């Protein structure tokens, strides 16, 4: 065990010398501390087989090695960040003599940002934290921690952008991974929303984009029920759309909630008559939601016998389309001023 520990440390230090980017550093960190196959994690799991009289000495050594590696990782991270900042400072220069832009060339906030801010304020007023999470996410948080193991068919519906040579990373396909991150960081009780960009490798049309936004919601407490979901959802939709909306709940399947629902809203673009946005059904899927699955609570470090929760994933771009009667989701990222100037 002692030899294994010291060769792990040597191997780590040898590899650390070759690390030249933050991404490589994260990958190296995974090979050491990854929850499943990390070299250190694997050794730590073997502690239970160590003879009692050796436990103390080996335990201490493990701790020293761990602290040393964490410190070296941290130092390298800081150095890389400093380098990056330096590069930026060298390539960007500000010319203070340049005349400023004429008034009409000034921009304004994108309609998506405006609504995202409005949503964040609305939720803050209800006692929610507003969190964010990484767009380049680990397979573990994007799928596994959400009760979607490698062979699970639900992965197919998540047309994922994978990262070349890095099977352990994905561009996050949804904001749900932040559910588990939040539970681990803040414990319970918890109220949080997470606005952010997500990515899907699928062909685009009036209601599908490769890059779009969601707003994840999560509430964890000691006795949460479906009535709580319905109350919050209605409050949210009327608060943002500033008019009465008609909604319906259908059962929906998502591995990380049980039971799961699909909350639909009567299409405001065509008033339920049928159009491109609602795929001629008169209804738009607004918000999948449900009670947080016990496995997900466990992944977040919470005891499902004590805590329950609800979660929802609002398609916030779709909401903005409904709010302003925008008929094609591709306008948002087109950079077309004729579109943007209307807001
Ligand atoms: N993350 C899911 C998706 O993008 C949406 C979702 C479904 C989020 C149910 C939730 C939920 O929080 O409870 O497909």
From TrEMBL:
Needed cofactors, names only, are: Mg(2+)
**Which top EC class is named for this enzyme in its record?**
ligase
Q: Which SUPFAM superfamilies match?
A: Class II aaRS and biotin synthetases (SSF55681), tRNA-binding arm (SSF46589)
GO terms for molecular function, please?
Answer: ATP binding; magnesium ion binding; phenylalanine-tRNA ligase activity; tRNA binding
Alphabetically ordered keywords of this record: Aminoacyl-tRNA synthetase, ATP-binding, Cytoplasm, Ligase, Magnesium, Metal-binding, Nucleotide-binding, Protein biosynthesis
Enzyme Commission no: 6.1.1.20
Q: Which residues form a coiled coil?
A: none
Output the GO biological process annotations, alphabetical, semicolon-separated: phenylalanyl-tRNA aminoacylation
Annotated binding of Mg(2+), by residue: 258
Q: Where in the cell is it found?
A: Cytoplasm
| Cellular component, GO annotation | cytoplasm
Q: State the free-text cofactor note.
A: Binds 2 magnesium ions per tetramer.
Catalyzed reactions? tRNA(Phe) + L-phenylalanine + ATP = L-phenylalanyl-tRNA(Phe) + AMP + diphosphate + H(+)
Signal sequence annotation = none
| Entry keyword annotation includes Magnesium | yes
Q: Where is the Aminoacyl-transfer RNA synthetases class-II family profile domain?
A: 113-321
What interactions and quaternary structure are annotated? Tetramer of two alpha and two beta subunits.
What family does the Swiss-Prot or TrEMBL record give for this protein? Answer: Belongs to the class-II aminoacyl-tRNA synthetase family. Phe-tRNA synthetase alpha subunit type 1 subfamily.
Q: NCBIfam families under this entry?
A: pheS
State the name under which the record lists this protein.
Phenylalanine--tRNA ligase alpha subunit
| UniProt source species | Candidatus Magasanikbacteria bacterium CG_4_9_14_0_2_um_filter_42_11
Query: What is the primary gene name for this protein?
Result: pheS
